């Protein structure tokens, strides 16, 4: 191999590594619930089905947002969004940062995922 081909191969490998390093790790909701401190303030990716959603919009503005609960079969977690909320039974993947409230007698209260991005499953 000549030097130019080696340089391009190394450059491509480094670029792929940088892209993958920026992607949040997909985890189960059960993992987040069982050890919220491990995931606190960290970006993660989850996927599941929306079981409940509550949206709000401020009249005469374009402001919207709300909260929805997503279940991946191992557990469920509330997701806060500053966009419109997905409807019940929507299948989606969500990326965001885990925020926790407080823990009492081993149970965490106020665990929420702050949504950065979401993708709906195509049927």
- Stated plainly, the CATH topology is called OB fold (Dihydrolipoamide Acetyltransferase, E2P)
**Biggest sheet: strands, sense, closure?**
5 strands, mixed, barrel
The tally of structural domains comes to: 1
What's the CATH C level? Mainly Beta
C-alpha termini separation: 46 Å
CATH architecture: Beta Barrel
Shape: extended
Residue share in helices?
A: 10-25%
Strand line-up in the sheet with most strands: 2-3-4-8-5
What is the structural class? alpha+beta
Q: From the alpha carbons, calculate the radius of gyration and give it in angstroms.
A: 19 Å
Characterise this structure:
The chain has a 5-stranded mixed barrel. It is 24% helix and 45% strand. The termini are far apart. Strand 2 (43-57) and strand 3 (64-71) form a beta hairpin. The chain is extended and about 60 Å long. The longest helix has 19 residues, at 3-21. The protein has one domain (25-120): OB fold (Dihydrolipoamide Acetyltransferase, E2P). It has helices at 3-21, 29-34, 36-39; strands spanning 25-26, 43-57, 64-71, 76-81, 91-99, 102-104, 107-109, 112-120. By secondary structure, the chain is an alpha+beta fold.
């Amino acid at each position: 191999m000549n030097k130019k081909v080696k340089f391009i191969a190394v450059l491509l490998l480094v670029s792929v590594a940088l892209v993958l390093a920026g992607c949040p790790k997909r985890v189960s909701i059960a993992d987040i619930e069982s050890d919220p401190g491990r995931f606190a303030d960290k970006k993660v990716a989850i996927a599941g089905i929306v079981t409940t959603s509550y949206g709000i919009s401020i009249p005469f503005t374009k402001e919207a947002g709300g909260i929805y609960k997503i279940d991946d079969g191992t557990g469920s977690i509330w997701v806060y969004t500053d966009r419109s909320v997905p409807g019940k039974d929507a299948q989606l993947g969500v990326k965001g940062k885990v925020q926790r409230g407080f823990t009492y007698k081993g149970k965490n209260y106020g665990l929420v995922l702050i949504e950065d991005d979401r993708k709906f499953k195509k049927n």
